[in-house]
Specification:
Layout: E1 2-8, E2 17-24, H1 30-40, E3 44-50, E4 61-66, E5 71-72, H2 76-88, E6 96-100, E7 103-109, E8 115-120, E9 125-126, H3 133-137, E10 143-146, E11 153-157, H4 161-165, H5 171-174, E12 181-187, E13 197-203, E14 208-211, H6 218-229, E15 233-238, E16 244-251, E17 254-259, E18 261-268
Parallel strand pairs: 2-3, 4-6, 11-12, 13-15
Antiparallel strand pairs: 1-2, 1-18, 3-4, 4-5, 6-7, 7-8, 8-17, 9-10, 10-11, 12-13, 13-14, 15-16, 16-17
């Protein structure tokens, strides 16, 4: 069985967010999917199978995502990685429609080699800053928002880019503040460097201490920063050690996420 490791939201190997990608004839039982994701041990492993013509309705492929600990409802970078594999292997041409737990998600290849994902925009709800979150994060929040059920994070605005880059949170303490984890963000110190805002994402509740580049988080970051900066088109830098850029375009209840991907490992999974 063929398995690829793809670095997503980057144009070079060993950066961005790595994801396992397996194209299957059908989904095996959930325990096997979870075992493979645990063995791959990246933030997410994506499993996709082609839907028979006429059976998929609005979708071409069924797609599921697993962290080493659990299945998740939405994942941007592993969707980008899967679309990259489908296009570079010649398995699928043109836009690909994925049937997922978050509805039909469309990935469209662009002439410059990047891929644009069409995802639902996260419904942001301003909330009171929870008591103790500043101590757990190691920085004083300015504002806080709930990102809704699909994303499942607490979005925290911090004072500046330097503060976001310097975070060293207490991950065990952070786990109590949201379903999945914390998105920490701030306005870019110098937009001339090619990004409008920065972020880091900590997801201890799903087995990911820090996610390198998180597409789903940008469905919340896009409306958050578009409102503040007055523009629908922005570029986010996720300032993890691996780092990566996500171009965002806000379209009301949909957010377009654009990035590149690179296959770094193409091998064989020996276990049945």
């Amino acid at each position: 069985m063929r398995i690829r490791i793809v670095d997503a939201f980057t144009d070079r190997p060993f950066a961005g967010n790595p994801a396992g990608v397996l194209l299957l004839d059908a989904f095996p039982d959930d325990a096997w999917l979870q075992d493979v994701a645990r063995e791959v041990n990246h933030a997410e492993t994506a499993f996709a199978h082609r839907l028979p013509r006429g059976e998929g309705g609005e979708a071409d492929w069924a797609l599921r995502w697993f962290t080493p600990a659990t299945e998740v409802a939405m994942c941007g970078h592993a969707t980008l990685a899967t679309a990259h594999v489908l296009h570079t292997s010649g398995t699928h041409e043109g836009p690909v429609r994925f049937a997922t737990r978050s509805g039909v998600l469309i990935a469209t290849p662009r002439e410059d080699g990047s891929i644009t994902l069409d995802f639902p925009t996260a419904p942001l709800t301003p909330v009171e800053i929870p008591e103790g979150v500043a101590e757990a994060l190691g920085a004083e929040p300015l504002t806080a928002c709930d990102t809704g059920p699909n994303v499942g994070d607490l979005l925290i605005e911090l004072a500046d880019e330097k503060t976001v880059r310097g975070l060293a949170p207490d991950l065990r303490a952070l786990a109590r503040y949201s379903e999945r984890g914390i998105i920490a963000t701030a306005r870019a110190e110098d937009p001339a460097q090619g990004h409008d805002f920065v972020s880091r994402c900590f997801f201890p509740n799903v087995g990911i201490d820090e996610d390198p580049v998180t597409g789903s988080a940008h469905t919340a970051l896009a409306p958050f920063w578009s409102q503040r900066l007055g523009r629908p088109d922005l570029t986010g830098l996720q300032a993890s050690p691996r780092s990566g850029h996500v171009r965002t375009e806000l379209r009301d209840d949909r957010t377009l996420l654009t990035g590149r991907a690179v296959t770094v490992i193409d091998g064989e999974l020996l276990t049945p």
